[in-house]
């Protein structure tokens, strides 16, 4: 049972020095209510999937919103490949592939038909996370408590939740019993489940948003009632003004997730110690709930 695994004591990260009074003000606001029992991280899924690489763990759990996912499957199995091509804006080849996936989808899942979500997704975020190669058994256990993946089909996944292969992006305008799109379908259940996950971590009431705008739109922040911190990653080239470079920002979200999980970060100020991929915390560019990390090349 996951709840019986003993975790190491949280690491208390030392505060960083600030260069001037403005930096000190931003830094202190960022670190307010810094002591947590844990953090809850949310990320986006990936279009790229990997169902071939040998599994890094044999432990698994079942998605908690599987009944709702089944209702969406009931809609998707009525779609022809041409319908899927038009609905999702994909090529005929991908439309045929996903038509087959929807037709073959069947719950409950087994390790023979599905794999753990954190091992199935293979995009830039998951390259940075590097769970198959870098996670220990204790890392997987800790991630199961602190790491969540937003999904257009499954709503909200824990890293060890089994999932069958699919493609259904959160921004898809799919009419359903709750509204005109997947935001209408998922916003309530996803937010309530995130709220429950936050409540189950003693003292924790902070969500670390490392998801894209498309996917985080499925979270009702007001209903969640939690502080949300959304890190920003900027790249500066040849001394120019730093800006977001999508490819690098996605990978940095994964690297930060790995840092938070493996270091058992339990303070908000501990986030500022992230230095993966050469990024460093920039207090001058940061806002209280938008810590900014800059990399120069």
- Using only C-alpha atoms, the radius of gyration works out to 20 Å
Oligomer: single chain
Strand order of the largest sheet: 4-3-1-6-7
Detail the poorly predicted runs. 1-26, 32-37
Structural class: alpha/beta
**Percent in strands:** 5-15%
Biggest beta-sheet profile: 5 strands, mixed
State the distance separating the first and last CA atoms: 46 Å
Average pLDDT confidence is: 89
Number of strand segments: 10
Shape: globular
| Count of runs of 4 or more consecutive helical residues | 12
One letter per element, helices H and strands E, the order comes to HEHHHEHHHHEEEHEHHEEHEE
**Helix-residue proportion:** 25-40%
- Integer tally of domains: 2
Can you walk me through this structure?
With 297 residues, the protein is an alpha/beta fold. The chain has two domains: 2-63 and 116-163 and 178-296, no CATH class; 66-108, no CATH class. Helices cover 37% and strands 12% of the residues. It is built from twelve helices and ten strands. It has helices spanning 21-30, 66-76, 81-88, 92-104, 117-120, 124-129, 131-134, 137-146, 182-200, 213-216, 221-224, 246-262; strands at residues 40-43, 115-116, 147-151, 155-157, 162-163, 206-210, 227-229, 232-236, 280-281, 292-296. The chain has a five-stranded mixed beta sheet, with helices on both faces. A three-stranded mixed beta sheet has the order 8-10-9, with helices on one face. A two-stranded antiparallel ribbon has the order 2-5. Helix 3 crosses helix 4 (92-104). The model is unreliable at 1-26 and 32-37 (pLDDT under 50).
């Amino acid at each position: 049972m996951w709840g019986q695994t003993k975790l190491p004591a949280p690491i208390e990260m030392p505060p960083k020095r600030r260069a001037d009074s403005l930096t000190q003000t931003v830094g202190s606001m960022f670190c307010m209510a810094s002591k947590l029992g844990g953090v809850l991280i949310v990320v986006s899924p990936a279009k790229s999937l990997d169902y071939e690489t040998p599994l890094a763990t044999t432990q698994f759990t079942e998605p908690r919103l599987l009944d709702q996912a089944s209702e969406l499957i009931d809609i998707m199995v009525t779609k022809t490949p041409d319908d899927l091509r038009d609905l999702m804006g994909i090529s005929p080849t991908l439309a045929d592939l996903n038509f087959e996936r929807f037709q073959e989808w069947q719950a409950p899942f087994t390790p023979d038909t599905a794999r753990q979500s954190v091992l199935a997704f293979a995009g830039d975020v998951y390259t940075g996370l590097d769970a198959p190669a870098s996670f220990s058994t204790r890392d997987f256990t800790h991630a199961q408590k602190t790491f969540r993946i937003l999904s257009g089909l499954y709503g909200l996944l824990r890293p060890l939740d089994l999932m069958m292969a699919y493609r259904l992006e959160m921004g898809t305008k799919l009419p359903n019993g709750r509204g005109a799109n997947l935001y209408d379908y998922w916003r309530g259940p996803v937010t309530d489940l995130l709220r429950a996950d936050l409540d189950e971590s003693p003292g924790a009431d902070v969500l670390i948003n490392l998801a894209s705008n498309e996917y985080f739109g499925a979270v009702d922040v007001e209903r969640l009632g939690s502080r949300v911190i959304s890190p920003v990653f900027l790249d500066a080239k040849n001394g120019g003004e730093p800006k977001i470079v999508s490819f690098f920002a996605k990978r940095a979200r994964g690297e930060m997730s790995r840092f938070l999980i493996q270091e058992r970060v339990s303070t908000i100020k501990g986030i500022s110690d992230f230095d993966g991929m050469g990024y460093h915390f920039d207090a001058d560019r940061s806002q209280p709930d938008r810590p900014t990390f800059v990399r120069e090349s």
